[in-house]
Amino acid sequence: MADDRMTSQDSGVYKTLLESTKAIPWRIDWKTMCFTYIGPQIEKLLGWSVESWQTVNEWAERMHPEDQQSVVDFCVAQSKAGVDHEADYRALTKDGHYVWIRDVVHVVRDQQGEVEALIGFMFDITERKETEQKLLDLQKELEELSFKDGLTGVPNRRMLDKVFEEEWMTARRHQQPLSLLVMDIDFFKQYNDCYGHIQGDDCLKQVAQALSSAATRSRDFFARFGGEEFVMLLPETDASAAIKIAERCQQLMMKLQISHQDSEVSQLLTISIGLGTIVPSPKDEIVDFVEQVDQALYRAKECGRNRVKTA
């Protein structure tokens, strides 16, 4: 009798402990797939009454549509295999919002080793998920900043190297032309000496914004190469099309109408452009191709600047 009384008391203590924690305990009978118990804390968290949790259908239906299929399939597979597991998902509240839940599940077996029940705890991890998302957003922002030129806001040399490698491999694999424009502002040192570095920085920003507008397709890539040099990478673009884009870049410079009284070629700011097109083969190297286009830019300067020369 004393043992029975002690067992009853223990059961009451355990129930009180379970129902006083923030974790929400529950139990599902495996054969019927019905809840045999769920903690009253569930109503405070999600708004659904304890009585409304009858079968696993309620559990599945009160899950975000994007999470439902994968989480249900995972939990069923793990449970059938008798493996304890955890699952994160968004649970629907009675007022139509979603709360992030982590279900920690333990599989109970009978004496024959068959699955008898599932018992577990639901934890509200909304705050943790929000913090994780903020960290992910911050990481993405920092990554974007690391690939962005601090002055002009266009992609930097680091991003160029990454994109160039990807486009080079794509062009080689599909045997498609890849064109490169290397652009240099004419007599920019003299511009800085004449107008000052603050105005020089503003000039670089204007030039970057104008020239980047010539990259009209989604894969056209414009970046600051360094100093007063900019580049444009043009996938699936042959030489004749690339020349038209180079000419478009010079027209955009003219539209800016930036005065440059110390230039030796014009009273307005101009650019020289080196251009190259290649269908990469396995023996070709990016560094050699860039060197060829650089040489074309050098020839454009040698021939009087404010012009386009092809490699």
Polypeptide structure, described:
The chain has helices at 2-20, 41-46, 56-61, 65-80, 126-146, 157-174, 188-195, 197-212, 239-256, 286-302; strands spanning 24-29, 34-38, 85-92, 98-109, 115-124, 178-185, 221-226, 229-235, 271-278, 308-310. Strands 2-1-5-4-3 form a five-stranded antiparallel β-sheet, with helices on both faces. It has a five-stranded mixed β-sheet with strand order 7-8-6-9-10, with helices on both faces. It folds into two domains: 2-131, Beta-Lactamase, CATH 3.30.450; 147-310, 2-Layer Sandwich (Alpha-Beta Plaits). α7 (188-195) crosses α8 (197-212) and α8 (197-212) packs across α9. It is elongated. It is α+β, with helices and mostly antiparallel strands. The chain is built from ten helices and ten strands.
Task: Give a brief rundown of this model.
The chain is α+β, with helices and mostly antiparallel strands and 311 residues long. The chain has ten helices and ten strands. The chain has a five-stranded antiparallel β-sheet, sandwiched between helices. It has a five-stranded mixed β-sheet with strand order 7-8-6-9-10, with helices on both faces.
CATH topology assignment of the largest domain: Alpha-Beta Plaits
CATH superfamily of the largest domain: Reverse transcriptase/Diguanylate cyclase domain
- Tally of helical runs: 10
Largest sheet: 5 strands, antiparallel
What is the beta-strand fraction? 15-25%
Number of domains: 2
Main-sheet strand order equals 2-1-5-4-3
Termini gap: 100 Å
Helicity level, as a percent range? Answer: 40-55%
**CATH class bucket of the largest domain:** Alpha Beta
Mean pLDDT: 92
Organism: Methylophaga marina
Catalytic activity: 2 GTP = 3',3'-c-di-GMP + 2 diphosphate
Domain PAS: 10-71
InterPro entries: Diguanylate_Cyclase (IPR050469), GGDEF_dom (IPR000160), Nucleotide_cyclase (IPR029787), PAC (IPR001610), PAS (IPR000014), PAS-assoc_C (IPR000700), PAS-like_dom_sf (IPR035965), PAS_fold_3 (IPR013655)
